[in-house]
Structures are given as structure tokens and as C-alpha cells.
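cache lookup: miss for this entity combination. No prior model stored, computing from scratch. Input as submitted by user K.M.:
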Amino acid sequence: MLRDPRMRQVISACITLGFAVGVFAISFGVSAVSAGASVAQACAMSLLVFTGASQFSLVSVIGSGGTPASAFGGAALLAARNGVYGLAMAPHLQGSLGKRLVAAQLTIDESTAMAVAQDDPAHRRAAFWVTGLSVYLFWNVGTFIGAELGTAIDPMKYGLDAAFPAAFVAILFPVLKDRVSRWAAITGAVVCLALIPFVPVGIPILAATVGVLFGIPDPVDDASKVAA
Amino acid sequence: MSWTLVFVLAGTAYFFKVLGLVVVGDRTLPPMLSRCLALIPAALLAAIVVKDTFSMGRHLVIDARAAGVAAAALAAWRKVPLIGVIVIGAAVTAVVRAVG
């Protein structure tokens, strides 16, 4: 398997990505602790929840005084996208039930993105597993380092309160690949800002999901109308 | 933060992962539903960015974070790697806060 030069390339890219995500996990650890989580809770989240955007969203809402229910709502909606990734990966990850139950925990942004970028089935499976496992390892090590660090420093002094939105901006950009996604994002942002002064913390984030309604019109229909 | 919240979120997150990969498998969802689900990250991430940048509890504010996040957005647009974007966002915020 490792005699295949393309396979070596894929594997090394996947491990590098895992390492980069691990550095990002340090900022999650810091943020979680500054939002009031204990080191053990920050680590438990990374081990068990293992989907970064949901984890960040949960500690962000709790940190700014939101209710547990509203914090959970936003985090759960973000976690729902892993279900969509699972649908995309299912045809490529056949095997025993046990193996698929492990694969499910590793079905996240990075593993799916690396897998779908490959052209043949063997590279696709390798990219999924190597990325999933390396992200899992580095994400948890990074969280622990960050959580320990976060209890030792003043996050405001180093601008770490901006690490949240900065990270989300970086995750957001690649998502805005077409016009519909951009409209969904703009609507989400405007609805959220407009509601912040008037409703409890956390609710504006949930309300922002009205942006997904831009998915209702069928783009194929629209395209054929334009063509006709 | 409560342990209940941690465990409930862990269960929910795993539920979605298993639902897609193991339960639904390669059966297909109605196209309209898949299109809407695919837009969740765009709508939600944009909302989280503006909330974390321009709010303090239930108040809208413009402070050092706005400069930091603007710099981070510019970096992300110029394809700076994730960790670079975070460092730039935090550093610009820290500097503006220290000066201001």
C-alpha cells in the first residue's frame, strides 16, 4: 500500500491537517475554560462530542450568559451537518457494524473533505481514516494543553476572546462557495444582529437558521428557466 | 457549565453521525431537505461570527474585537491557513485593546 506514491502523499497530507487542527484545539481549550468549563469538561467534550463547531458554539453561548437550552440548540444544529457528511460517506465506508460505528464518530468536516477530494476508492477510504484518527488524536491533545493554559493566563489580554469569531470566519469562508450559501450567511448574520438586544442570549443564533430557507428553490429549475 | 450539558451534546452529536452514516446509509433524502441542511453551516457560522464580534451579553458593541475579526476575515480571504487566521485575529484584538 505504501509503495503507491500517491497514497503516501494522501496520508502525509491527512496527518499534517490533523496537526493543524490540533493547534486550533488549543484555542478551544482556552476558550472553554474561560467560558467557565473545567479542564475535565473541556477534555470530555473533545473526546465525546468531537465536532469542533458545536463545541465552540456551546462554550460561546454559555460564556456570554445564555441558557443551557439555547446553547444546546445551536450546538445540536451545527452537529446535524455531520449527518449529511455521513450520507455522503456511507457508500465508501462499507464493512462490519462495529467498524461503521467507529467511523461515525470520526465523520466530521475534515475527514469528509479529505475523503471526497480523492479520486479512487482506496485513497478515499485511507484519507477518511487517517484524517479522522489524526484529527481525533491532535484535537484531544490540543484541547488538554489549551485548557491547562487557559487557567493560567488572562484570555482578554491576549485577544483570545476574538479567537472564537476569527476561527469561525476561517471556517465560514470555504462554505460560501455559491450564491445561495452567501444569501443564507447574510440572512443568518442580519437576523442574529437584529435580535440580540431584544431576546435572551442564544436565541438569535437559533433564529439565524431561517437562512437555510434559501435551500427551498430548486437550482436546476431556476437554471432551466434562465436557459429557456 | 454542567456535566449534563456535555453528555447530552455528546449523545446528540453521535446520534447525528450514526444517523447519516449507519442508519440512513446510502438511501437518499428529499432533495429540498438536503439543500436546506447543506446551508446550516453558512447561516449558523455567520450568525456566530457577528454575535461574538459585536455583542456583549444583550448589548451591541463595537470594540477591539471588530478590528481583530476584520483582520482575520482579510487573512481568511487571502487563504492564510486556519491557525494563522486565529493568531492574526487574537493579536490584532490584543494590540488595539492595549493601545485604545
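stored under new cache key. DSSP finds five helices and two strands in chain B.
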